[in-house]
Amino acid sequence: MNMDTRHKKIIKIVQEKLTCSAHNLDHVFRVYNLCLLLAKDEKDVDLEVLIPSALLHDIARVEESNDKTGKIDHAILGSIIAEDILKYLEYEEDKIEKIKHCILTHRFRTGNEPNSIEAKILFDSDKLDVIGASGIARTFMLAGQFGQRLTFDDSLNDYLKSNTVENGRLKDVSRHTPFIEYEVKFKKIPDRLYTRKAREIGQERIKFMEEFFNLLKLEIEGIK
Ligand SMILES: [Fe+2]
Ligand SMILES: [Fe+2]
Question: What pTM, to 2 d.p., does this model score?
Answer without folding.
Answer: 0.90
